[in-house]
Amino acid sequence: MIVTVCMNPAIDKTVEIESLVPGGLNRIQKVEYDAGGKGINVSKTIHALGGTSVATGFLGGNAGKTIEQLLKEQGISCDFVYVDGETRTNTKVFEKCGAVTELNEPGPSITEAQLMRLVEKLSGYADEQTLFVLSGSVPKGVPADI
Fold this sequence. Notes:
By secondary structure, this protein is an alpha/beta fold. The chain has helices at 38-48, 61-73, 112-125; strands at residues 2-6, 10-17, 28-36, 54-60, 77-78, 81-83, 88-95, 100-104, 131-134. The chain starts with a strand and ends in a 12-residue tail after the last strand.
């Protein structure tokens, strides 16, 4: 079994505009939403290659519920720890000329108790047949050496 650990997942919001006008009105021509973050991208790739995985980590608020729903619709198993606060949204602004501007939110702060719930969940999956993939950014409240 492969378990992808998504400590700081995000909704990836991609917008297309003609040309970015800082400080001015920018009319969006197209918008797309997807579940994202490095760990979730690993689960999506495993699924695309015909494999299975379980995505776990931290989710919060309506954005977290949306991510879980999107993953389930894609046939990806989920087992997240729900936390206070809102899972982040990362916005990518694509201009017709090819330039990309990224706006990444910080995400919720994780408590020691929430981190311990995740560690317990991971311990439940651990055996000789399990591969854990930890990737992506670490949210506030989680030690960098996790």
